[in-house]
């Protein structure tokens, strides 16, 4: 807990009363939280884009492909074992009271995820195994920060998350660039970024959680695991983990097919093209993510009118961004990717345009996604995502061998379309059964 500094003034030194505990910090508004989220996520997206540019300019498309493939095999694993605890924690009232349960669950699942990555490396050649291990280490450290983010998020303090993300992004990009320039070793680069993540976790995230009203870390990491509420939370979060993994496959599954059919160089080009649109998606996601606590509150208050009004506002934001994305791609798409990545990348404008359509669909679907997460309807979302993933696999199997990069983009569009149709149906269904759904998903392990 944060202690009132006035107790340490000379006039109070002779007193025997305990320090006055300050109240919780004032939560930020939706616009402030959205702005901070955009700054944080924007910094992360920009750093990832710059890393790809650095790899393309100082290395080669093949090097970009190796980095992209390592991300493609490690990210779904950690997303599955994340169980979306950050989102669940953000939508849980009085989350600080049960925060230790979330931390225990995250420690267990992170250990399992890291072990899975280590097992995966045994099937790879030594160079690729080290790259995968380095990225896996960084993600394991980031997963510990992630559960702290859930606590900050629930208290509507997205500025704390943004500061952490900005520090990690700047540090990772700087160290990655310098390491690649000096050593030309991707292996050293990924382990350097893992070190940056560790420093941010210790010096910022843990420090903030311990010294502010979020001071719940004093005994969390040393308490015993005899209380099995953490195990109940893991079981409860499994559908959310499956959903996260399947959602990530929408991005990474086409890359598996592309790498297997053509090679890592084509994978590097496709990854670079797809990175162009990340910024637009993150702007929309920042507003939508910041709205989850409010959406959850409206649901528990049975205020469907206010919920729908907020969803309309979020949809309009996505629509404006989608129009800007369309105009920007048509006017600046080809010269931009040629300038940033090189002439060989500019030859694939058809793929870039198809990826733009996929991004537009994601922008328009985000409000539905966040609303359903506020419902905590992860089982239904996971079932819907299975249908979308099945459509994606079938499309990739049919289109990628013949149409290559463009086939990957079309497969993503098909999968997103199936996903959106299913989410629209689920949203209407859940609004009709709101009371019953809340009762089923409000678990004692996630409530004070």
Low-confidence stretches: 1-23, 437-448
Describe the main β-sheet briefly.
none
Structure classification: mainly alpha
Number of domains: 1
Number of helices: 16
The percent range for strand residues is: under 5%
What is the residue-mean pLDDT, rounded to a whole number?
79
Radius of gyration: 22 Å
- Report the strand count: 0
Range of helix content: over 70%
Order of helices and strands: HHHHHHHHHHHHHHHH
Q: Which oligomerization state do the chains in this entry correspond to?
A: single chain
Terminal CA distance reads 18 Å
- What is the general shape? globular
Description:
The protein is mainly alpha-helical and 448 residues long. The relative contact order is 0.12. The chain is 80% helix and 0% strand. Helix 2 crosses helix 5 (126-154). Mean pLDDT is 79; it is low at 1-23 and 437-448.
Task: Quickly list its features.
about 450 residues, mainly alpha, 16 helices, globular, disordered N terminus, disordered C terminus
Task: Please describe the topology of this protein.
Blueprint: H1 30-58, H2 61-82, H3 85-90, H4 99-121, H5 126-154, H6 158-183, H7 186-211, H8 229-261, H9 264-275, H10 278-290, H11 292-300, H12 304-341, H13 343-346, H14 349-374, H15 378-432, H16 434-441
Helix pairs in contact: 1-6, 1-10, 2-4, 2-5, 2-8, 2-9, 4-5, 4-8, 5-7, 6-7, 8-9, 8-15, 10-12, 10-14, 11-12, 11-14, 12-14, 14-15
Please sum up the structure shown.
This protein is an all-alpha fold and 448 residues long.
């Amino acid at each position: 807990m944060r202690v009132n500094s006035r107790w340490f003034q000379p006039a109070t030194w002779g007193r025997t009363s305990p320090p006055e505990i300050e109240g919780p910090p004032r939560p930020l508004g939706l616009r402030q939280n959205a702005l901070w989220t955009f700054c944080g996520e924007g910094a992360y997206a920009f750093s990832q884009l710059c890393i790809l540019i650095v790899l393309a300019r100082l290395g080669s498309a093949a090097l970009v492909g190796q980095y992209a493939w390592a991300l493609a095999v490690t990210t779904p694993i950690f997303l599955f074992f994340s169980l979306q605890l950050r989102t669940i924690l953000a939508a849980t009232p009085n989350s600080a009271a049960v925060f230790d349960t979330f931390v225990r669950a995250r420690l267990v699942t992170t250990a399992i995820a890291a072990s899975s990555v280590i097992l995966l490396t045994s099937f790879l050649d030594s160079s690729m195994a080290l790259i995968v291990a380095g990225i896996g280490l960084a993600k394991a450290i980031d997963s510990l920060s992630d559960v702290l983010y859930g606590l900050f998020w629930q208290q509507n303090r997205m500025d704390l998350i943004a500061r952490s993300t900005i520090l990690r992004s700047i540090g990772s990009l700087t160290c990655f660039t310098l390491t690649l320039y000096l050593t030309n070793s991707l292996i050293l680069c990924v382990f350097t970024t893992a070190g940056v993540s560790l420093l941010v976790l210790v010096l910022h995230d843990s420090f903030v959680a311990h010294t502010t009203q979020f001071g719940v870390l004093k005994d969390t990491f040393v308490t015993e695991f005899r209380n099995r509420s953490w195990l109940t939370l893991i079981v409860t979060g499994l559908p959310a983990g499956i959903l996260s993994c399947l959602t990530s496959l929408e991005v990474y599954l086409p890359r598996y097919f592309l790498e297997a059919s053509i090679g890592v160089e084509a994978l590097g080009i496709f990854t670079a093209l797809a990175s162009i649109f990340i910024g637009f998606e993150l702007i929309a996601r920042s507003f939508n993510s910041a709205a989850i606590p409010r959406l959850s509150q409206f649901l528990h208050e049975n205020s469907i009118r206010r919920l729908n009004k907020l969803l309309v506002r979020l949809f309009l934001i996505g629509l404006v961004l989608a129009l800007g994305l369309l105009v920007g791609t048509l006017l600046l798409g080809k010269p931009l990717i040629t300038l940033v990545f090189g002439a060989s990348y500019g030859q694939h404008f058809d793929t870039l345009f198809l990826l733009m359509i996929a991004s537009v669909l994601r922008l328009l679907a985000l409000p539905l996604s966040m609303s359903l997460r506020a419902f905590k309807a992860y089982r239904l979302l996971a079932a819907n995502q299975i249908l979308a993933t099945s459509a994606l696999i079938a499309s990739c199997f049919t289109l990628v061998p013949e149409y290559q990069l463009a086939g990957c983009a079309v497969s993503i569009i098909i999968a997103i379309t199936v996903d959106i149709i299913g989410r629209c149906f689920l949203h209407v269904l859940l609004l009709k059964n709101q009371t019953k759904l809340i009762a089923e998903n409000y678990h004692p392990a996630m409530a004070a």
